[in-house]
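Hey, can you fold this?
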Amino acid sequence: MAEAHSAVAFSFAITHEGVHVNYDREVLHVIWHSGVRQWRRGIRRFVNTIRCGVFPASISSLALTIGSYNAMYLSRDWYGSNFDISLGLADLIKKHIYLEEPAKGIVCCTASAFAVWCGVFLFMKYSLRLLYIYKGWMYEERGRGRTMSRTSRLWVLAVKVLTKFTVPMLYSYQGSLPRLPLPALRDTMSRYLRSVRPLMNDEEYSRMEKHAHDFQGGIGKKLQWYLVLKSWWASNYVTDWWEEFVYLRGRSPIMVNSNFYGTDAILLHPTKVQAARAANVTHAAFLFRRLIDNQQLQPIMAQNLVPLCSYQYERTFNTTRIPGIQTDKIVHFSDSTHIAVYHAGRYFKMPCYYKGQLLTPKELQIQFERILADESVPEKGEATLGALTAGEREPWAEARSKFFNKGINYTSLEAIEKAAFVLVLEENEYDYCEDDPSQLDRFGRAMLHGKGYDRWYDKSFNVIIMKNGRIGFNAEHSWADAAIMSHLWEFVITEDLITIGYDENGNCTGKVNCDPRPPTRLKWELNQECLQVIDSSLRVAEALLNDVDLRLYMHTAYGKGFMKNCRLSPDAYTQMALQLAYYRDAGKFNLTYEASMTRLFRDGRTETVRPCSIESSAWVKAMEDKTVSNEERVALLRKACVQHQNAYRDAMCGKGIDRHLFCLYVISKYLEVESPFLNEVLSEPWRLSTSQTPHGQTNKMDLSKNPKCISAGGGFGPVADDGYGVSYIIAGEDTIFFHVSSKKSSPVTDSPSFARQIEKALSDMKNLFESVAKK
């Protein structure tokens, strides 16, 4: 064991012959390089913090300003010029400096140059923040024959001028991002009533309208004023409460109910060597972490002009969710040089660095081969230990404080929680076959929940490597949204398939430069009481996963290419298809959730878009009404798509509905004030929860050169017991993947049937446009 090895790294004995000192040179080398690495990271982070803090200016501009000021100020004395570049500021400072010339002049001139540089820097920084408040560019239509307004063109020019002086780092724009604006209460009420109109009859709507007006004219005013105060004080009035009350206090168990998953590039299978694929993926993941730590990762830019908030990247690695009795918490460790590996019911601590250097893929493959060759037997309860993180949170919190707070269990649990991430070496094979869609379904279920105990669901993410080399991930949701994990996964896949690669035998390429310390088997002492808690959590997890009905549907009849030819937004087009499919499946409309990001603002996460609108319901009814012509249907569809796009833009710009109402509800609970309106609104179930998997953030992913290098995206479990969870990724010009989840116990849902309804809706929409085009 590693702790036993460390215990004998240094020892001494006193005998009658004197003092004898024994030490392990290799361990001392490890300690030395660990310290050096920490110092380097600390210095690098300090420098990067300064560089990001002065953006859009730069340290080099400060040096240039000071140098130029001193040169021109001193040349005034040498050549007898009367021009003072400091405009008298240097002479003013001289009165308070008691030094001899020329040191006195240099110090004064340097101080005045620094003051002028700070003034220019602050002007640029706050000018940029004011420019980023403008969101008019989002509402302007783009495409052939459309031109940008004069206001937007001037705005683009100003943004380019202010940001062209230096190359931005990952967190460079954080200080320039505006705060999330708080909508007016009357605007939110108006948008809410409009969103629920198609879901209610006249009597129900009149009742809800009265409740909304009473709330707006009554307690809503008081709650809004408190929220105004928070919006002035906090950098984002939503994010902290959303993380605490939605993620960390709720969604128990988190397996299926909160965690989400991602899949491999299913059309490519670069190697069937499990250890080699694990090595490449691990190496690529650590490269991504290095980019985050060094802030060399380029911030994502909307329209190559407006940055998205990057704060969520900080907790990607070395992060775990700690269970609590009342609420969980997220713990992020500053660094980790190892990963935790689960294989055949056993946990291993695997070093990924040697003397401060990241192991090469070839060296990492040796590490994984050592684990695969280990024939030791799991200790009693070890194989199902991960079920604690899959079951209810309160029993896990109690077990953690009672059985894992000291000794061997504490040491082993710490090794998992402090790991960069968890990697699972599966003993089963999963693959994709076009003639057998059920294979993809089984693959998705393995990523979403596995066996209920073979993932550590509290870690920020688990990488799963199948026996035949297929890969996927399972991610915890509280630390960040899916966009961050998608960025990491896209980077990992492209590095693995395009940059690193494999040799002709499917093994890793490169050299072996060292013999790294072998992985350490983690030990556990699980008494009977602890085993009972594990078994109880496992029963909860198994009941939950056995109820999951998951269908992965790959639509290849057409994709975004056809949608764009129809001059419609691919996302809006797909959302309308889902509305039509759900109406045909359920026979009615229901509240629909679509996630939209608010990362145009500082510390932004998500907002809800409500795709079920007055316009979308009118189009769906027209599709089912044989008396309506196809031309009218197309016109209604275009109107519905425009409304959906505007609602999406509103949500991105801080003009949403649900986060505002949620924060008002939290304040009402703090004030112990009951609001029937808020209670009813926030208890409405989302029977159709949808999300588009983000992609296209890694430039190496060139689908024109690598048409098969597309991921099937990822998915999540159903939000409501009698509803559907639908994640989709528009993977190419002619491919869309849909991940449809529901619960088998519900008599009103059926995932395969809903997938068929999606297929039929997309087909009917294509036929609709083609029939109109022929005329």
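Oh, and this one too while you're at it.
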Amino acid sequence: MDFLDDRRALLRAALLAPAGLSTVARTADLATEKGPGPGIAHALAERRAAQIANVRYDLSLDLTGEARANGTIAIRFDRVAGSGDLVLDFRGPDLSDLIVNDRPLSTQGRRDGHLTLPQALLRTGANRITARFATPVAASGAAIIRYRDDKDGGVYLYTLLVPSDANLLFPCFDQPDLKARFRWTLTAPAGWTVIANGPLAERSAAGTATRWRFAETEPISTYLAAFAAGPWTHWTSAPAGDRPISHYARASRRAEVDAEAQIATNRAAVRWLADWFAIPYPFAKLDLVLAPAFPFGGMEHVGAVFYNEDRFVFREPPTLPQRVNRDATIYHEISHQWFGDDVTMRWFDDLWLKEGFSTYMAARIQAELQPDSNAWTTFLLSTKTPAYRADATSGTQALWQPLDNLDAAKSNYGPIVYNKAPAVIKQLAFLVGEDGFRRGLHDFLHDHAYGNATWQDLLGAIGRASGVDLGAFGRQYMLRAGLPRIDTRLRPAGDRIGTLALVQRPARALPGDPGGAWPMKVRVRLGYHDRDDVVLETTFDGATATLADAAGLPMPDYVWANDGDQGYGLFLPDARTIAWIVARVGTVTDPLLRALLWSGLWDSVRDLRVAPDRYVAVLLDHLPGERDEQISRTILARGATALDLYLPDAKAEALRPRWEAALLARIDDPQLGYGLRKDALDRLVATARTPLALGRLRELLAGRAMLAGAAIRQPTRWAIVRRLIAVGAPDAAALFAAEQRRDTSSEAVKDAFVARAATPDRSVKAAYFTRYFDDATLNEAWASESLGAFNEIGQAALTLPFLRPALDRLEWIRQNRRIFFLPAWIEAFVAGQRDAAALAVVDGFLKAQPALPIDIRRKLLTARDELALTVRIRQAGL
């Protein structure tokens, strides 16, 4: 494949190419003259990758302290002759007793998280560095997170180093393409259990504490180094002939954890992937940790996968979407063991390479191992839909995202990486064919095992295996921002089709867009009520795909231009199809097709071609017959958006009695399964406003009403209390206090904190806002979970004064909070508004901040454009 046909690709290829020794020579004075500056600059990373190799870290940490951990480190590596000074990274509070090849080096020169090791102390070939260091331990903002269990007082520690916090934990060369072998030695209080990347080699007494020594790992990137320590309870599964898997959780939650099911799901994923890739599981062991207040859904650390405890412990009977989502998280993290851990992107500009493939592979695993899960329907509704939403805004960016410094890498995480990337990969697999796709992935993983790769390496392997030239595909999907809008052009000739074509154009005009057509192969369905449907395959030739085989066929009832959901783009139905969806969507038996048609109707609302109140009416017409939990959940969520955001208040209030009556009927319908009834209740809790609906919520709290014959459990109880607080119910304070007394679970304090954030009182909001920044004991996960309650849409006028202060803190948040907190913050504060006044605040901020970092600006523009669309729909008066 020739990816150098255009200048942009040439530039990017030059940036991605490994630095040679000539580069080292040209930049040899970088550290000594002006220092590398804050963070890990791309230039620094390229230089170091050419200087050293075969890195090993021997790490010892004492975890018996409360606010800090003291440690020692020995670093070994091989160095290229004549490669100049070497920069070591460390941002922790203390670094001392540094010895370089048996010669001491002062640490007084440490600046901006770096220390220069002069070439006079370095050798050609083998080198060894030792030092003492200390790192902070805290509830948030530290490399070691400390969590205290309010139930039993137990203290738990765990690390989280992605993308560039390894150098906050220990001195290192913190970049993904300097993979290293790790050997951990961790001293913890007696009675604790410690888990790390490698297998346990030895455990011994160390005074009143216990020392845990772990075997050396395979080569892994620094961000994947990890440990967890605390009074964990655990389960171990060791079937004959298979690897043991141990599962760890808080001791106070042992009775709530369905450990056997979780272990079985992880094991099934390992087996399936090893077979499908024809490459064995690449690491020595696999442990699973349910981390309390974990700020991600999961993290793929080698040998010790961390999962979000809240998402993995069901405190009430789970619905199908909850079960599917939990399993999908497992499949995603286990896929990372191959895509991300074994083969890692060379630099975080290719972040999509690991995240996109893990999400895509998770859907494939689920589709095969759980055929009843309708995995590709989930993929459409949960993965592709958020991708379309973000990619159609002015805040979008290409899959390959230029990155000058790892300090900014955390802001590259988002729907383009997690949602667009897997959607594009699905199109790639369809375009090249199953056989070539699978062989290409095997070759890619085999050729780069325990190493690093780029998107060019991936497309090169797939292109060679399939015989398909992927040059245009790489340019249009990897290097170009945005997505196509595909419109159907159907022209009749009497009662027959005259011509049928699909026409694509950019969904939004973006500055600097290079133009051109997105390569794409799709299937087009012609739907009939009186004969079998016809499905035709077509490939875009430039901006148009003409379906010559459709000419002369009977005019269809409807046309769906992306049958099977293989294409990537906004597929907008024509007027004929919209009319058919409105009347007949509930009669479609295939769940994926029905979900696609519902999505086409919703996209038509957002395209201002269908009025939002019309959507709600259609939804209520077809809702009684909908039996798919995932579709029901999605269309109801969109109906709530239409009511709460898109419709002017008068129109929304006119529809609410019918809306709430439909939900109550669904809740009370004994013919429906628990999941459908629970979903209806969740939607009622989120939108209840009339005395009838609020009265039912109070009855559920009091135990006078049931759900599917059983009393509601604690998560739903707190959701109801939160709703009554949000609407300013006169008895809300008393019900809140009663719930605090009633709930004795380990989650009671957190749930109360979240619920109280919904209080419609400016002083309460101000107190929360202050705590978000000034309370060092507030766990980041708790803060993130409370943002939606703080920004209840019905309180938009109350929270509007907080919008500008929230925007003013964006750079601080990027610097001091984890990956997903910044987009969650922006989404909560901007999406909590719906009027032109709020849009003016956002636009005023953007105008006043021309130097706002581009990654923050893009995320804000994404939310801003959604708010602008809301304002446009509300003002359209459709």
